[in-house]
Write a structure and sequence with these properties.
heterodimer, A: 286 residues, mainly alpha, MetI-like fold, 2 domains, globular, B: 334 residues, 74% helix
């Protein structure tokens, strides 16, 4: 969008001032947004003595490597990272399969009970997750899935948002003639879905993958309730659990925190446009 | 493939029970959508429908999950009576409500003008700034709350140290000297401050998300409208207030709805900032935190189930009122 130059701010100085004000507002916003991340990185180079010393410490400390050793001594850091990674990957891949199957069925077939399923999905989207936390735990408990990773990702693999998203994509980008042609060629329903429809859904699947991976990597509440042993814990849980320890080595913890957000931040910096579009797609397109 | 389908009717008709084969085929054909829907039906049935009904049953019982399912004991309405008369339940609902206001209102008051300002820039600059603003949304709530917990630290946090520096600096003392009476502030220790501390983190994390939504909304407004307004003599503020804002109404309604839903579920930020609900929790604990405490720290699943139902009703009533009051107007009459 191009705004026509405002006639009444014709005088050069006035225009300069308003431009300076505009940029200082926007850049102040950037500074406030970025600062905590840079600060955690800076603190990761300090230990307790320099951190809790008097006055502002703005210099880079020398404790980075020692903090790394401390980090490994207070928690199974890389085990937590690996657990988060495997939960996020398994959950994302499964949800791509399940959501695309369901979205495809809702888009292509007319069947009895369709409206009921549709209504249930909308209702479950409106329901705050906290209300379902107790029942979720009861089922996990009854199925004997406590302290398993399956419990953390399986219930989210049928994300109704994802199902709607895929349904939308099928309606918009899979021509009816193509499905008819596949049928005439004698392709089975599953084969049509797998080798004709799925390849056409790639952009939709990428969006869904972003949403699911970010959610699962950052998730805390369900792991907190279900994962109890330290070798199963995900990284968000591990970081939080050492907060209560007396004499917490905050430098080491800040290092761990920074490393834990690094994978998503790096992906984000490489593909910010796709990630912003993906994560707001539920909001912007409706 | 095609050869197979051509042959099949012939082989079937010469088979033993042609009708049965045909019917099986039809049945299989009819059931196809259900096969595709089966992951949803099975998983949602297991984790969604069954437990909701079980929760009704549970809310009339006393159950300690550690002791196993056999320890369940019928207590009638006791859980509901206990919960409804529990002052902490209403306190935590009030906390949730206040923090939703403190974090939600500034989010939209800042995001709207920021989105408008971003559109004054060139494409490249806008892209970079948006990328920066959106960054917190991508990072985990636990991680950023941990970082803010350190920044809020009473003795050595950057916020208190900066305030002390302002209060004692030779240039700034005349303006900030009064702060010395208050410092060090216990941002996450004091009940009087914790709501603001939590709300700021929530605000900081989600303002970028709203900026993106509003930028997308502004992009749908055609340039000609702004040009026409400019020719009619409207200045930048008037163009924002009289042209952009009314057309953004559906976007505002949607973004505010998302904010409200998000805030009802607020758990991570207050959980970390109150150090696992161990400090300043009277004012800092949200309803979600309290539910967690009852169910998993006090191991009283029956009461937690009863509270879930109470919450369900409260949220249902508020959602209904919200859509009734704002829904039609918010969507611009569509």
């Amino acid at each position: 969008m191009n705004f026509p130059s405002d006639m009444r701010v014709g005088r050069g100085t006035l225009r300069l001032i308003s431009k300076a004000l505009l940029w200082s507002a926007l850049l102040a916003g950037v500074a406030i947004t970025i600062f905590p991340f840079l600060w955690s990185l800076l603190l990761a180079t300090h230990d307790r003595s320099t951190m809790f010393g008097s006055g502002l410490q703005l210099g880079i400390g020398t404790e980075l490597l020692n903090n790394y050793d401390r980090l490994l001594s207070i928690m199974n850091f890389w085990v937590g990272m690996f657990n988060s990674f495997s939960v996020a990957v398994l959950g994302t891949v499964t949800s791509l399969l399940f959501c695309s199957m369901c979205g495809y069925a809702l888009a292509v077939y007319k069947f009895r009970g369709q409206n009921v399923l549709f209504g249930m999905m909308i209702c479950s989207m409106m329901l705050p997750p906290i209300l379902t936390l107790i029942p979720y735990y009861m089922v996990i408990n009854a199925l004997g899935l406590t302290n398993t990773h399956l419990a953390v990702w399986l219930p989210f693999s049928i994300n109704p948002f994802g199902i709607f998203l895929i349904r939308q994509y099928v309606v918009a980008s899979v021509p009816k003639e193509l499905l008819e042609a596949a049928k005439l060629d004698g392709a089975s329903a599953f084969r049509t879905y797998w080798s004709v429809v799925l390849p056409l859904l790639k952009p939709g699947l990428a969006t869904l993958a972003i949403v699911q991976f970010v959610f699962l990597w950052n998730n805390f509440l369900q792991p907190l309730v279900v994962l109890t042993s330290t070798e199963k814990m995900v990284i968000t849980q591990m970081l939080r659990s050492v907060q209560g320890v007396p004499n917490t080595p905050w430098g080491a913890l800040m290092l761990g925190t920074f490393i834990s957000i690094l994978p998503l931040v790096l992906i984000y910096l490489a593909a910010s446009k796709q990630m912003i579009n993906g994560l707001t797609s539920g909001a912007v397109k409706s | 493939m095609s050869a197979q389908t051509d042959i099949r009717p012939a082989t079937l008709s010469s088979g033993l029970t042609p009708d049965r084969g045909e019917r099986m085929k039809q049945l299989w054909h009819k059931s196809t959508p259900y096969w595709f829907m089966s992951p949803y039906i099975i998983i949602f049935g297991t984790f969604g429908i069954f437990p909701v009904f079980f929760m009704i049953y549970l809310s009339f019982h006393q159950w300690n999950p550690v002791a196993g399912l056999q320890s369940m004991r019928y207590v009638g309405l006791e859980n509901y009576v206990l919960s409804l008369t529990d002052p902490m339940l209403w306190q935590t609902m009030w906390n949730t409500f206040l923090m939703a206001l403190y974090s939600g209102i500034p989010q939209h008051l800042v995001a709207l003008p920021m989105a408008y300002l971003l559109l004054l820039l060139g494409k490249r600059a806008r892209h970079w700034l948006t990328t920066a603003y959106f960054l917190p949304y991508v990072t985990s709530t636990i991680a950023v709350s941990m970082i803010f917990f350190v920044m809020y630290s009473k003795e050595s946090g950057i916020i208190n140290l900066s305030l002390a520096w302002l209060a004692n600096g030779s240039m700034t003392q005349w303006l900030f000297g009064w702060l010395n009476n208050l410092l060090p502030l216990g941002w996450v220790q004091e009940n009087s401050l914790i709501r603001y501390s939590v709300s700021f983190v929530v605000f900081w994390k989600y303002v970028g998300f709203n900026i993106v939504i509003y930028t997308a909304g502004l992009a749908t407004i055609s340039d000609e409208l702004f040009e026409a307004a400019t020719i009619d003599g409207a200045n930048a503020w008037q163009r924002f207030y009289h042209v952009a804002l009314p057309l953004l109404r559906p976007f505002i309604f949607f973004a505010v709805t998302l904010t409200i839903i998000g805030n009802m579920n607020l758990f991570d930020e207050p959980y970390v900032l109150t150090r696992g609900l161990s400090q300043a929790s009277t004012n800092g604990m949200t309803i979600s935190n309290y539910l967690y405490r009852i169910a998993w720290e006090w191991l009283d699943m029956g009461s937690a189930a009863a509270i879930s139902w109470i919450l369900f009703v409260v949220i249902g009533v508020f959602t209904g009122l919200y859509f009734w009051f704002f829904g039609r107007r918010g969507l611009g009459g569509h």
